[in-house]
Amino acid sequence: MEPLTVVGSLNSLAAIAEYVMAAAEAARLDKKVSYKLRLAVDEIATNIILHSYQEAGRSGVLDLLAEFDEQALIISIEDTGDPYDPTKEPTPTDLDQPLEQRQLGGLGVYLAIHSVDKFIYERVGNKNRNTFFVKYKSKKSQEDESNSQNL
Amino acid sequence: MKINNLTIEEVTLIDLAGNVDANTALTIQEKVLPLAQTGRKILMDMTKVPYMSSAGLRVLLLLYRQVSAKDGRIVLVGLSEEIQDTMSVTGFLDFFTTRETIQSGLEALN
């Protein structure tokens, strides 16, 4: 798809969601898979906007690109903030604790990484690049596959 | 994002409509948290919320704590399957009472 460039502001989240959903539709992902991809991209974009740009007191853009290879829809986001690798965030350990005892943050990155088939972080030049992979495989083809394995 | 509320006797019905992301969550938080007053029963209708990110979970967490601190109660109504999934993997779903309709939500509160 054509790339999308938006300013690093929370007001851009709606446009980012629209772009992701258009890509998901073009890739014919089912409803739940599309939703989870949107969630993953939204969470990472939110983090970039709030932490890499706003809290760091700098302005910048987010560059999104959706690509369709043979097996997966691949969406990448690039930003010019300081190096930040979301995969280095610790997994929340209090998810079974009563809500009174929970920490407020940390859920976004956890959700993002667990909502897609593969998530990659790279530092490329002066940019962070976060890439999300979602396989096209539909429920039907998974069933067909497991049936053929049973034969 | 539209947020309406209606209070009848001890029950406050909050009607959310729209996507809950980091851009809209703060508005919701500011409007909804003050509604959790002493002993109040809150019925939050999310039938018209197609999307909720972790920013929404944060608001739910704050609301839950506020309601608990004020000896109130809260029931969530009309959660989409996707939102239930998000609340499930983050361990939120077990701590909230959820119902499919406003009617059954009211029954759960009373």
Give a summary of the structure in a few sentences.
The complex is a heterodimer of chains A (151) and B (110). Chain A is an alpha+beta fold and 151 residues long. In chain A, 39% of the residues lie in helices and 24% in strands.
Q: Can you walk me through this structure?
A:
The complex is a heterodimer of chains A (151) and B (110). With 151 residues, chain A is of the alpha+beta class. Chain A has a single domain, classed as Histidine kinase-like ATPase, C-terminal domain (Heat Shock Protein 90), CATH 3.30.565. Chain A has helices at residues 13-26, 31-55, 107-114, 139-150, and strands spanning 4-7, 61-68, 72-79, 118-124, 127-135. In chain A, strands 1-2-3-5-4 form a five-stranded antiparallel beta sheet, with helices on one face. In chain A, strand 4 (118-124) and strand 5 form a beta hairpin. The radius of gyration of chain A is 17 Å and the shape is globular. Chain B has 110 residues and is α/β, with parallel strands linked by helices. Chain B has a single domain, classed as 2-Layer Sandwich (Transcription Regulator spoIIAA), CATH 3.30.750. Chain B is 40% helix and 27% strand. Chain B is built from four helices and five strands. A five-stranded mixed beta sheet of chain B has the order 1-2-3-4-5. In chain B, helix 1 runs parallel beside helix 2. The chains are: A alpha+beta (151), B alpha/beta (110). At the A-B interface, helix 1, helix 2 and helix 3 of A face helix 2 and helix 3 of B.
CATH topology of chain A: Heat Shock Protein 90
The CATH H-level homologous superfamily of chain B = STAS domain
The Rg value of chain B, from CA coordinates, equals 13 Å
Percent of residues in helices of chain B comes to 40-55%
Bin the helical content of chain A.
25-40%
Tell me the distance between the termini of chain B. Answer: 29 Å
Named CATH architecture of chain B? 2-Layer Sandwich
Low-pLDDT regions of chain A: none
CATH class of chain A: Alpha Beta
